[in-house]
Design a protein that fits this description.
The structure is a homodimer of 481-residue chains. In chain A, strands 2-8-7-6-5-3-4 form a seven-stranded mixed β-sheet, sandwiched between helices. Chain A is an alpha/beta fold. The radius of gyration of chain A is 23 Å and the shape is globular. Chain A folds into two domains: 9-52 and 364-472, Aspartate Aminotransferase, domain 1 (Alpha-Beta Complex), CATH 3.90.1150.10; 94-339, Type I PLP-dependent aspartate aminotransferase-like (Major domain) (Aspartate Aminotransferase, domain 2, 3-Layer(aba) Sandwich), CATH 3.40.640.10. In chain A, α2 packs parallel to α17 (412-424) and α10 (229-242) packs across α11 (266-273). Chain A has 18 helices and 14 strands. The longest helix of chain A is centred in the C-terminal third of the chain and has 27 residues, at 349-375. The model of chain A is unreliable at 477-481 (pLDDT under 50). Helices cover 44% and strands 12% of the residues of chain A. Chains A and B meet through α1, α3, α4, α7 and α8 of A and α1, α3, α4, α7 and α8 of B.
């Protein structure tokens, strides 16, 4: 009998081509080990609550009340919920038509989109139009929708940083497009070089690829760098010259661990540049409730804002969003709460500030502990995590380790990460899942393990690594730069 | 300058080809009128809470507590929440790793998938494997993922009933596949004729299309029929013979308004048929928390169960699901609560039964009121709504009305529905959005307006319709059958 449509041989090839390392071999092996009773430290996904971060109290109170609107009529509600949470729940319910159980408009609740626009205006100092803001089930869904509009076939290319977050490579494969890599420069703290960008585009063109869009991740994932205003300006000028849509993945905009270079949005830089850029460059920027000090990953809330996208295209994106009816409504309320937070004087304000500052300051300390820890290990070098939630150390694998990996049928960094997992329970993602230069190896870990566990984790990492290096190094030593 | 990637001319053509009438011209016009202050009765989407249906208390209590886990340590929690809701919240939180704020496994929380499997086993009397059940953000997302694996290009066809729910036509367009229509027979209460199916396949083949899958919607949307066991058996045998994957959209399985023909799942019928069918036919079945007496559309919770899908394919689907990390977690809890409801003796059991029975019985009365109402109108005939949430009356438009529509540049049923909207505020979806035979016209309305409003709505409809018919009919009368 002929293969059936859902037999592996017969499936859509684009599906099979997709690679998704964040939940790939390492994650699957870690899940197995966990089932067998081994203690696993999951640092493969930026999933703070899974590693013990507690949710912010106030937004959870508001959403709990929105889920249980009958409590708003209960005379005892004030015993367990503060008055400002009750008021906010009433506010958000009044913005819905039918509460959390009704589909919203496919673009999201108009009142919440208005609050997002006000947030962007305050952040950037430029007007923002709620009609050009769509709420989504997490930022990923917005990225996928946007790329779906951009990519028409394998002749269409999208510039993606290497290393990159595999959402981009996976989505481009799934949509049958072509990924055009540009390399971030590790020795320049993962900076972005415009000359390198131009070369990537030229190379893609020589292969017959039309480069149509460019992705930046700022702050960087997995690389942790913050792009400077000057660098963003160069990028936007480049997009203008090359006629590229810019996808600005700005989901880590609240996660900044140094004071020298605050987050600046692509939208603000574009508006600052003035004409012709501010009216010409097509920009789609993404944000989420999953990161920042919220870390509400499981809620799946995000938005994207479109700049210089023509109304007819906005209508098409609206139509596509409508196929799945609406993003989940509870996460839309979280988004409202994120962009329109408590103000000084509100009853819950001090608690909210204490909780959110506590998380951010601890992340900053953890970024430092982790980077320093990696840099104290044999054959490991690591740029400081300026932002986002990850460390991306380079692991200088000795030739004998690379040979051993080959004998085991593994990519060298996968081999290293599997050995690390078996020895210590630390579940990381090999650098090959994000892309890296030929012959150079990394791993990605989140900086999210609980602060009190961090010294023991880094010690356990160092013990494994240094023994691994000892095992595979020539006695003459190994000194590749 | 060349068009930019997100200029309309330059976008992915598959995006532009998508049609999505449920939120199309009628919906947009209704939204405009609402902004202008007109009272609109939105019957375009099966969105019960938007039309005043109140959520079931118990599941909302449980999810509210899961959102506010700190309440579980509050000595006063028992003042506003019953003990069984507290116990259930603890149960579901124990199944997560990190509560509602953490991404779950991309397939959904293992413990909830186990509860779904137990539900299916009780329903069908056959084993169900949690590893073959994936939770999704509403059933739509699961349908889109499945079709994404099936469709490789325009040479791949999917059999879709006409009239159909436009999720299918829209997704097939977006994925660049070919829709192969098969017609449901209105005069046989929207039954499905196997000979017609065979003709559809033969016709598609003659055009060079490989038919790879078939969609059934049972109970039907927009048509409201329930498929008999004998009919399902024929369909499954047909899928076996023609080597087709069956997509069983069973989201309305709790919405049954007659006693003669209970819902039977495709999975049960397939297992009943025994070898070779039960081991050969590839089946994916879909369910949701959006319908039934829950109507929790805004939460976006669903699942799909795979039968006879090889493990390598399941791995591929898992990988694709991983790109967007995880379905939203709160809706996974709703799914657990739906498939594992309260039992006699639980504190909240009686209230739960009272609320859910109240909703279902009212829907049954409304289905009757609506069908009878339509059948009392001039030139309108309507099959009884046996299940689901819709009425799909045929509107026999007089030739002069069809001419008037042409002059206005509108499809005739769109013309009628727009006039209905302007005159009465009732926002329906024209039959052309679902597909219908040439020269035959329908509209779809949900049966969801509040029961107490129903007589006035049907009266207002009748007044509009009968005047419309009066206006456009020859004085000699119009009697097309």
């Amino acid at each position: 009998m002929a293969p059936k449509a859902l037999d592996y041989e017969s499936m859509n090839e684009n599906v099979k081509k997709v690679q998704y390392a964040v939940r790939g071999e390492l994650y699957l092996r870690a899940s197995e080990l966990q089932k067998e009773g081994k203690k696993i430290i999951f640092t493969n996904v930026g999933n703070p609550h899974a590693l013990g971060q507690r949710p912010l109290t106030f937004p959870r109170q508001v959403v709990a009340l929105c889920q249980a609107p009958f409590l708003l009529d209960d005379p005892n509600v004030g015993i367990v919920f503060p008055a400002d949470a009750i008021a906010r729940a009433k506010h958000y319910l009044s913005l819905t038509s039918g509460g959390l159980g009704a589909y919203s408009d496919s673009r999201g609740i108009p009142g919440v989109r208005k609050e997002v626009a006000e947030f962007i205006e305050r952040r950037d100092g430029y007007p923002s139009d709620p009609e050009l803001i769509f709420l989504t089930d997490g930022a990923s869904k917005g990225v996928m929708q946007t790329l779906n509009c951009v990519i028409r076939g394998e002749g269409d290319g999208v510039l993606v940083p290497v290393p990159q977050y595999p959402l981009y490579s996976a989505t481009i494969s799934l949509l049958g497009g072509s990924l055009v890599p540009y390399y971030l420069e590790e020795t320049a703290n993962w900076g972005l070089d415009i000359i390198d960008l131009q070369q990537s585009v030229a190379q893609a063109r020589s292969k017959g690829i039309t480069v149509r869009a460019m992705v930046i991740i700022n702050p960087g994932n997995p690389t942790g760098q913050c792009l400077s205003e000057a660098n963003l300006r160069e990028i936007l000028r480049f997009c203008y010259q090359e006629n590229l849509v810019l996808l600005g993945d700005e989901v880590y905009q609240q996660n900044i661990y140094q004071d020298e270079r605050p987050f600046v949005s692509s939208k603000k830089v574009l508006m600052d540049m003035g004409l012709p850029f501010s009216k010409e460059v097509q920009l789609v920027s993404f944000h989420t409730v999953s990161k920042g000090y919220w870390g509400e990953c499981g809620q799946r809330g995000g938005y994207f804002e479109m700049t210089n996208i023509p109304p007819k295209t906005v209508d098409e994106i609206y139509k596509i969003a409508s196929i799945a009816l609406s993003p989940n409504v509870p996460a839309q309320i979280f988004m409202g709460l994120m962009v329109n937070p408590l103000k000084p004087g509100d009853i819950s304000y001090e608690q909210f500030v204490r909780e959110s500052k506590g998380i951010l300051e601890s992340l900053r300390r953890r970024a430092r502990m982790m980077t320093d820890g990696f840099n104290s290990c044999r054959n490991v070098v690591c740029n400081f995590t300026e932002g986002a939630m990850y460390s991306f150390p380079q692991i200088r694998l000795p030739p004998k380790a690379i040979e051993a990996a080959k004998r085991a049928g593994k990519v060298p960094d996968v081999f290293y990460c599997l050995r690390l997992l078996e020895a210590t329970g630390i579940s990381t993602v090999p650098g090959s899942g994000f892309g890296q230069k030929e012959g150079v190896f990394h791993l990605r870990t989140t900086i999210l393990p609980a602060e009190e566990d961090m010294p023991a984790i880094m010690e356990s990492f160092k013990k494994f690594n240094d023994e691994f290096m000892e095992q595979y190094e020539d006695y003459r030593g190994y000194s590749r730069m």
